[in-house]
Design brief:
39% of the residues lie in helices and 24% in strands. With 244 residues, the protein is of the alpha+beta class. Helix 5 crosses helix 7 and helix 5 packs across helix 8.
């Protein structure tokens, strides 16, 4: 993809993201030092010490994962356009999670200025960053709390609705349909299930005429019924996310 200046970024025009003042936009413009394209299944950040990588996911899908002591991978979140990658490692110096591209991705490289300048001079941006991190934490905590007492089909239904609403907020879903590159193994890693449980759960959602997953596509057939079935509901409040 050709280099996209911050002023021309299509994501910034979306209501989902915080609208910048001119000084804030100028800072973010200086923060962006480059742009890179990577293929699917590419390791963007490895678990461990900070290696100097801080990025914004401009296009494509990625996922954050952890590796257990036994060497098993567990997906903890799906990353969509607008997600910041590497912030935890930058702030803490290390992280127990890594990030891998799920599809071909374009990343904005954020190394033109020190992030300390943001903390010192742009309180509004710092506050928006904290809100974005809290929203991600809330989403993960809610999913974990519900998963512990859900059946496999209920877990899958909850996650599909949650993901669909995130995509819809980005203009990536409409009329009950969205692109869906996740495979059974990704869903199994994310929801703590086996591939067999995922297959059975997909069949159950189709049998109930709630949703169906086809080749690279997700169709929400009965949103109300699916919400009742899974206990999913939209968050009451949703702050505009920071887009660096």
């Amino acid at each position: 993809m050709n280099f996209v200046p911050c002023d021309e970024c299509a994501l910034r025009r979306m209501a989902r993201f915080k609208q910048f003042t001119l000084p804030e936009l100028s800072f973010v413009r200086e923060l962006k030092s480059g742009q890179i394209d990577l293929p699917a299944r590419h390791t963007i950040i490895r678990p461990g010490p900070f290696e100097g990588g801080l990025y914004t996911l401009y296009s494509g899908w990625a996922f954050r994962y952890r590796v257990t002591e036994t060497g098993q991978r567990h997906i903890v979140d799906i990353l969509l356009p607008g997600s910041t990658i590497g912030l935890q490692q930058l702030v803490l110096g290390a992280s127990d999670s890594g990030v891998e591209s799920l599809t071909p991705v374009t990343l904005c490289v954020l190394s033109g200025r020190a992030l300390d300048d943001l903390y010192a001079d742009f309180g509004g941006l710092t506050g928006a960053m904290v809100l974005a991190l809290l929203e991600d934490e809330r989403r993960a905590d809610a999913r974990l709390a519900l998963i512990s007492r859900m059946t496999a089909p209920e877990r899958l239904a909850y996650f599909l609705l949650e993901l669909f609403d995130r995509l819809h907020a980005l203009g990536m879903a409409s009329d009950g349909w969205c692109y869906f590159p996740l495979q059974r193994r990704h869903l199994a890693d994310l929801l703590g299930l086996s591939d067999t449980h995922i297959s059975r759960s997909m069949r159950e959602l189709r049998r109930r005429e709630l949703a169906s997953i086809t080749s690279n596509g997700l169709r929400i057939v009965d949103r109300i019924g699916m919400s009742v079935f899974s206990g999913y509901s939209l968050p009451q409040t949703r702050a505009a996310r920071l887009l660096l």
